[in-house]
């Protein structure tokens, strides 16, 4: 069971990194260094950006839950 949660944690970690990197830069910080500072003329956030935000939050919560479950499992061993 611990192995399954460890594999899930690795998958969620990679997915979370990809999702965070897919976000549009809001200006300032490291996002300007990689071209995120160039804003398009379209104002506001699109439906795709809002959905990406929701998916990122869900994957982040699943990642956190995997860490908590792994911690409990390791403590019980």
UniProtKB/TrEMBL annotation:
Write out the GO biological process terms. Answer: protein secretion
Kindly indicate whether the keyword DNA-binding belongs to this entry.
Answer: no
Transmembrane spans: 6-23, 55-74
Q: Where in the cell is it found?
A: Cell membrane; Membrane
Q: Which InterPro entries match?
A: SecG
Task: Look up the signal peptide feature and give its range.
Answer: none
Matching entries from Pfam families are given as:
SecG
Which GO cellular component terms are attached? plasma membrane
Kindly state which keywords UniProt assigns to this record, in alphabetical order. Answer: Cell membrane, Membrane, Protein transport, Translocation, Transmembrane, Transmembrane helix, Transport
Q: How does it sit in the membrane?
A: Multi-pass membrane protein
Which coarse location class describes where this protein primarily resides? membrane
One MF term in GO for this entry? protein-transporting ATPase activity
**What NCBIfam families is this protein classified in?**
secG (TIGR00810)
Q: What does this protein do?
A: Involved in protein export. Participates in an early event of protein translocation.
Q: Which family does the entry's similarity section mention?
A: Belongs to the SecG family.
Q: Which protein is depicted?
A: Protein-export membrane protein SecG
Q: Which organism is it from?
A: Streptomyces buecherae
């Amino acid at each position: 069971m611990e192995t399954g949660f460890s594999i899930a944690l690795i998958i969620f970690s990679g997915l979370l990194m990809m999702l965070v990197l897919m976000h549009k830069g809001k200006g300032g910080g490291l996002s300007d260094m990689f071209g995120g500072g160039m804003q398009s003329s379209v104002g506001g956030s699109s439906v795709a950006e809002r959905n990406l935000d929701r998916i990122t939050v869900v994957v982040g919560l699943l990642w956190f839950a995997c860490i908590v479950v792994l911690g409990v499992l390791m403590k019980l061993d």
